[in-house]
Amino acid sequence: MRKICKCEFLSLTLQRKNKETVESTDNIKSAGLKVTPQRKVVYEAMMELRHAPIDEIIKCVQAKDSEITVSTIYRILDSFCKANLLSHVFNPGVGKSYYDITVKEHHHVFEGEHIMDYMDEGLSELIRQYLKNKNFASVDIDKIQVQITINKNKVKQ
Ligand SMILES: [Zn+2]
Questions:
Q1: What is the chain's pLDDT, residue by residue, as a tens digit (157 residues)?
Q2: What spacing in Å lies between the alpha carbon of 52 and ligand 1's midpoint?
Q3: How far apart are the first and last CA of the chain?
Q4: CA dihedral (63, 22, 106, 120) positive or negative
Q5: Distance 119 CA to ligand 1 centre (A)
Q6: CA of 99 to the centre of ligand 1 (A)
Q7: How far does the centroid of ligand 1 lie from the alpha carbon of residue 2, in Å?
Q8: In contact, 70 and 58? CB cutoff 8 Å
Q9: Residues pairing with 114 in the sheet
Q10: E strands along 21-125, which residues?
């Protein structure tokens, strides 16, 4: 029996698939890259995974299209990062770098191996203001990323 990867399971509804296809084509195009079938598969895998290490992406992409080689996947991910279609986040829970589908400034909550996005413009602004009054007054801060790690051993009863 063939194992179903997490991203396949998540994309079972046809409606969602159609939306993703349109969205992936649009996003790849607007990043200034040529839309190829391989790029679409890799981007759609990332849309489903949200945050994933390279091995998980390879598994997911090859479950969709086994013809896409590992070196092609690496090449595509690299071009996506350069085109600002993907960002990176380090997951301290597993000690690995993850690709992240969200490029806009955002924060992360880590719980064991899991990464969740935490969008909070107020928090970013607060830190920006704080830093402006400190030693960072003269520099232009590009991105602020707060990492919140949940202590699983101390979850309230
Ligand atoms: Zn993220």
A1: 556 666 655 555 556 667 777 888 899 999 999 999 999 999 999 999 999 999 999 999 999 999 999 999 999 999 999 999 999 999 988 899 999 999 999 999 999 888 999 999 999 999 999 998 887 777 788 889 999 999 877 656 5
A2: 10
A3: 40
A4: negative
A5: 9
A6: 8
A7: 30
A8: yes
A9: 111
A10: 51-52, 87-91, 96-100, 107-111, 114-118
Rounded to 5 degrees, φ, ψ at 21 are -60, -45
Distance 1 CA to ligand 1 centre (A): 33
**Centroid of ligand 1 to alpha carbon of 46 (angstroms):** 11
Residue 55 CA, ligand 1 centroid: distance in Å: 18
CA of 130 to the centre of ligand 1 (A): 23
Token pair 């003269």 is found at 138
In contact, 93 and 113? CB cutoff 8 Å: yes
Residue 86 Cα to ligand 1 middle (Å) = 10
Alpha carbon of 116 to ligand 1 centroid (Å): 7
Global pTM reads 0.80
37-49 and 70-82 helices cross at what angle (nearest 10)?
80
